[in-house]
Design a protein that fits this description.
By secondary structure, the chain is an alpha/beta fold. The chain is about 35% helix and about 15% strand. It has one domain (about 20-200): 3-Layer(aba) Sandwich (Rossmann fold), CATH 3.40.50.620. Helix 2 (about 70-80) links the parallel strand 2 and strand 3 (about 85-90). The two termini are about 30 Å apart. The structure holds adenosine-5'-triphosphate and nicotinate mononucleotide (NCN). It catalyses: nicotinate beta-D-ribonucleotide + ATP + H(+) = deamido-NAD(+) + diphosphate.
């Protein structure tokens, strides 16, 4: 897959202004599904976000690339799920030439002085977070919002990252202030849940998670 086949609008930094709150929702989206849209809408609503950037990764560094659909397909399918004008589907990581979240976030934060960014992930990712490159640096750079996911609800208590970041945990009732808090700061958000997963969809079984 070359950049040439990806629409230019996915490769430029979405426009935002100082003072705004912007959620960064990274994922493989292979394929995207209603669970992703549910996470995005819940984050927008509960964190009070002005925008949410749906960052389609060139490839999760911890996942095998086998069976990963081409980026342009994952972008087009994601667009079909982004039923909210505040959601911006993006292939910025392709443009930056990185799949590492720490580098992506550093770049975005440096280029957008005064914007309040928050990283958004499902609870299953909190379980693995300590295996991400420079995960402690990510947690020191932006606040984190972890959204509940069936099968991973207890991750926030048991995972290595959750334990290491225990003192930085913010009560869910203060979620609306999270994006403007000085990191490290994170919260766990409960709400309506979806059992759908991309794995199940790839296996032709969209509702069994
Ligand atoms: N049903 C869901 N509920 C909550 N979070 C979810 C759900 N599905 C995906 N997420 C979160 O969305 C982000 C992108 O997920 P991803 O594209 O890997 O989908 P997935 O369904 O987990 O895929 P796969 O089954 O291939 O691992 C991750 O932060 C993940 O935790
Ligand atoms: O930076 C890392 O080391 C790293 C390791 C694993 C996952 N991530 C990112 O986490 C996000 C969620 O990935 P996924 O595959 O669970 O959708 C996506 O943006 C990945 O690039 C990042």
């Amino acid at each position: 897959m070359t950049e040439g086949t990806i629409d230019r609008r996915y490769l430029v930094m979405p426009y935002c202004e100082p003072g705004m709150t912007v959620g960064l929702f990274g994922g493989s989206f292979n394929p995207p599904h209603e669970g992703h849209f549910l996470v995005a809408s819940l984050a927008i609503q509960r964190l009070g976000l002005d925008q949410l950037w749906w960052l389609v990764t060139p490839g999760n560094p911890l996942k095998s690339g086998n069976g990963l659909a081409p980026l342009h397909e994952r972008l087009a399918l994601s667009e079909a799920f982004a039923h909210d004008p505040r959601i911006h589907v993006s292939a910025l990581e392709k443009k930056l030439g990185t799949a590492y979240t720490a580098r992506t976030i550093r770049h975005i934060v440096r280029r957008n002085t005064g914007v309040n960014f928050v990283w958004i992930m499902g609870a299953d990712n909190l379980g693995d977070f300590h295996r991400w490159q420079e995960w402690r640096s990510i947690a020191r750079t932006v606040p984190l919002a972890v959204i509940d996911r069936p099968g991973s609800t207890l991750t926030y208590l048991s995972s290595k990252a959750a334990r290491a970041l225990d003192k930085a945990r913010v009560a869910e009732k203060n979620a609306r202030a999270l994006a403007r808090m000085k990191p490290p700061a994170w919260t766990f958000i409960h709400g309506p849940r979806s059992h759908v997963s991309s794995t199940a969809l790839r296996r032709g079984n969209g509702h069994q998670g």
